[in-house]
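Notebook B, p. 112. Complex prediction, attempt 2.
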Amino acid sequence: MERELREDLADRSKEVANALLFAFGTPNEPRWPEILVESEKYDALTDYKSLIRASGPVGRNFDLVEVGLYRKQCAQCHGITGDGFGPTAALLDPYPRDFRRGTFKFKNASYGARPSVEDLVQTITYGVPGTSMPAMANLKRSKHYADDITVLARYVRFLAIRGEVERELMMDTVRDLDENEVLFKLEQRETDPEAFRNNLSRINEVIVRVVDRWMLSEGVEEQHKRSPFSAFVVKHEFAKGDLSSDSEAMTEVLLQESMQRGRELFEGSIAACAQCHGKDGVGDPKWKDYDEWTKDWTIRAGINPAVRAEWKPLKPLGLLKPVAAAPRNLTLQAYRGVPATMALEDNALANSGSSQGKALTEEDATHPKHSKNNSRLAILRAVLNGIEGSPMPAAALAASTSGGLTDEQVMDLVRFVESLSSSAAAVAVPATSGLAVMGTDR
Amino acid sequence: MSDQITTIPQVGKWVHRWAWAVSLTIFPLIWVGGLVTTQDAGMAVPDWPGTYGYNMFAYPVSAWVYGPFDLMVEHGHRLLGSLAGLLVICLCVAAWIDEPRRWVRLLCYGLLAAIVAQGLLGGARVVFDARTLAMIHGCTGPLVFALAASVVTVTSSWWKCDDKVFVARGWFAWMTLGLFLAAVVQLALGAQLRHIQPWASPGFFTSLVHTHLTMALLLLVMVVVVLTVSTTRRYRDLQGIRGLRLVISGLLIVQILLGCGTWVANYALPLAGSTTILSRYTIAIQGYWESWIVTGHQATGSLIIVSALVFALRVWRQTRTTQQFDLSISHQPTP
């Protein structure tokens, strides 16, 4: 397929880069755009302490404060601007995430919404099993590093916002601007202040549009309204995150019945899980769907990711070899993403970001020792919220769609999915499980 | 052969002892240096030669020991480096007093110059906050270690004694030197990987990894060839290399395992989707075992360099060119 790179886009790209530099600074000296700093509305977002600590070269300053945390822990894979194009990127499977879409898989926030800082903290703390994303929980064990994870999460949010602004500016520029119109020229500040102000105002509109999307995820109450998973957890009093705290029991017979109903849903047309995961849950190895990041480079640009000759010319521009996003093999009992349910009950924590320095304790429901509990929460969240960026959709729920899943059906499905792994089948859902209790409500 | 014994005066024993002391200090120094890289702690102390404004030796012990781990490692590396430098000065004094061979004295002075240069390089890395200098510092460290080990070798009684089986020097002797050089190149490649700049391209990093793996394979082949040849009839009686064969073989096996472990500790298990255990494995940042494995890989690399150099020196000590053999025969007393 013959394709031409539009040379005029190279100039536009430089203008966008200059605009970003003006608004967000450099990787060594990042800053929040003035439009955000000037408004009290964004005070919780524009946290300079995190920017200073996470950016720049790795080291300590004379006050013993460690800086350059992002380069120390993240940049080797995610790239210095969070474009997912760090030095190690090509060798990892899956590839490191490109933050610039604002798309994150593991979050309590609903499909399409931006993750909260607490969501990012969870992923950074517990890592993603079976991938190259490490768990940084060890940092929380020392008082000297206890707030590093929150700092990193906030910086990841900064990079994602910067990246989203970059994408939107580029798209707006290509779509809206005439050939001789200027997006941004710093020299205009002296030569043509009026034009400079107008251009800056257009850029600020984009910045505010992007940031407002992120702000929606920071209010816990808002999140409850918007996220099916968060609402479900609150509604069924899983706010403490411990699904095995109820004292009532579910008998073996009821459990088997529940799992049987779950199987029917799994294979049936409402949940339709078997379409991708297969009836036995091992996933379809011939499945050829791709994640959103790959589609950006390929399908949406009219390029077939399965045809090497089509995508290869884009490699020098940063495309990594397209790899199909295979449906998860559910028999492996490896569920990615530990939901931050503790944060759901503590508004102050999630609203103010006061989790800085919060040590990891075994009492936390998301502590690794509660792995069975975490697995259930992860399945529940994947069912209710879907996994954004991947082909895994959010389930249609009866509360919002006629013919959707009821709460009990959701729990039947969770129990069945959990039983798919042979080791899990042996223990299934324990008799004292809170999930089990839900099944007896009917 | 007994009539060929050259009587060695019992001098230079202290030189040998000090050389051992230096070597035994440099190895942990290299290990801690590796830990500095693993923890990315090179700039944990922002000034040099001082430590947070203090004289390096006057920095409060409590602030050092109970401070952040990266600060502890970096400051510890500096103190250990100072100790190594002090020991090399003692070695040089002993050599000046007690070592009759001029070239060995020069070797000791060369070691002093090398360790001072290494310290300055480490300091420059801090003063200029230059990761590239850190990488060079990481490459030259094992070379200083190798130099110290060569002083141990040439000051040993075994080296000084001429009561040996000498064989003709062939390509084998050159191959042992080649093995040493290959090990140095491999370590330099590893240092590049460990000090990769965050703005390096994925293509560059990928090619570095592939070169490192290819070099590992080449080293494996070279070690197998060198060790196999060393057991042939011509070389098997060379006393100086018998134990070293086992050491190098063992180190190589350990190093390959540590290399695989380093990959897993840094970048995940292969075939993660194939079994429950593999798919549930999560890498841990600053994990205890992870740090040991990654740092151990680098430290074992330096041990391989040293072993290869000592092996080569011993082979060269016990091999002679045809010309040397002719000279040796002409100097034998007439019966």
